[in-house]
Each structure stands twice: as structure tokens, then as C-alpha cells.
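[INFO] parsing input record for BetI-type transcriptional repressor C-terminal domain-containing protein
[DEBUG] input buffer:
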Amino acid sequence: MTDENEPRPPGGTARFRPGKRLLPYPYNRDLSGVLRHLNRSRPEYRAKLANDPFTAAYLAAGMRLLERHLGPGAQGGPHGKPFLLSFLSQRTVADEVANNPRPFPRRGKPRSLRHVWKSQSDFVADLINFAVWEENYRPKYRRQRVANTKRLVKGPDFVHAVHEIAYEHTADGIETPSVRLALALMTSADGDVEVKRAISSMYEEYLGTWKELYADVLRERGLRLRPGLTLDDLANALSAATDGMILRAIGDPEADVVDHDGRRSLFGTVALAIVHSFLEPEGDESGLTLEEAVSARFDNGSR
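[DEBUG] output buffer:
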């Protein structure tokens, strides 16, 4: 006989199975648009499975494992070595379900997990999608977004705003397990198509919101991109700089790329350098590409 707490495929016709709405936020939300790698081919069955409490049970277990193994002060593997993704094995995730708080189901088995996600890669890909889902950061995300927009678009001290926001962004990234997971997977999941697709989707959604903000800044402050550069270039450059700073701070805390006492990070300096080199005042632009501007400054004396 199947235990009532064992995760199992959903039945019935309702999209939300009994108990779904009793789960804590955001597990009680509609996850059909978030979980994209479920072991179902038909959309209606994927929607049911996405919103089954037993699916949420595995997600909750995975999120705790992320916090435990990739959060600050994370546990190591044998001899203190990192686990990489071994801590998200099907057996480990299924066992962790037993530690779920009520009202989550608390009995998991690898075969039940495979019924929801066919492979570990599928589970990891959906765990990434869920971990970086904006619902996990509301209302903090919305408040922060509104405040950042106001400071960068119309604030009186743009430089100070950039330094403050850059520090907050870097410090949050260092502490956030989902960010650490995404950065780790970039180097360890080279041949995994599903995981790479999940990371790409994560960046597409994440950078989309920042590009909207950058466009507002350019419009309100009367700036334009240099010829040959696009908003995508600006967003990718700043994002890559952020990722690099977070990686360096995690791997080499003594490098002083983040100053918590002064609420500054090297990313703030790099961000200012990027926007200064990428942008020009509207109506007073030189018309030079970035390469031409650099050449004009550095090559004149050698001719």
C-alpha cells in the first residue's frame, strides 16, 4: 500500500490537488510556468504535476539542500572537499523530504522522484528555475526594484547610488544559494543541455528587468550608447562583472573585492567604468565607437 505522504503522480482533474493551497508561499502558487522539465508530455498533465503538493515536497527538500551545501558556511564533502552536485542526487533529495515541515509531504523515494523528473538533470534544471523565480524574492524584490529605479533614474547622486546598489547586489549574490548554484553549474554542466538551457533562461529573465532599468536611465538622464554598442552589450557586461566579483569574493575572501564595513565593492568601480565608457551625453556625443575613443586617447602619442 502506498503511504499517503509518499510523493506520487497526481490524479483527478483539478489543477491544484488537495493540500496545495495550504503550503507556504511561494509553494502554494501556480508553478506550471516555472517547472519546465517534468516527466509529462501533455501540457495539462504537466500543469497538474507542477501543482501537486508532492512535487513541492521535492522542491522544498532541494531548496534546503542548496542552503545547506551552497549557502554561507556550507558543508563540504569528504575531507572538506566540495560536493558539487552530489548533494542533489535522487537518493539524497528523496531522503531530505523526511525533514520537510508540515504541511509538506514527508515521505520521499527515488522512484517517486523519477516519476516527477526523469533524470537528475531535469530536477536540477527545474530547481534552478524555482530558486531564481521572482516570487521567491517578493515583496523584498519589488521594494528593492522600485528604490533602485528611483535612485538610478532621478536620484541626485548617481555615483553614490551605483556604489550602494553594486555593493548590495554583490553581497546578496555571495549569500544566495541559488546564485552560487548557477555559478557552479556554469563550469560543471558543460555537456548538460537541460541545465544549460535553464541557466540561459534564468539570465534572459534576469537581464530583461535590468535592461528595462538601463533604458529608463538613458532616457531620463539624456544619455546614449556609443555606436556599435547595444543595451544587451551593456547588460551582459555589467552582469559578467557581477558574476566575476561574486566568484572572486566566494573563492578568495581576502581579495577585498567587497568591503562590508564601508558598504562598497570593486564591482561598483567597474560598473562606473563600464557605463562611462559605453555611454555619451545625448546631443554632445563624439560619435566615436569605443575602440575609436580608446585609440584616440592611447595612440595619438605613438604616431
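[INFO] The chain is about 55% helix and 5% strand.
[INFO] shutting down worker
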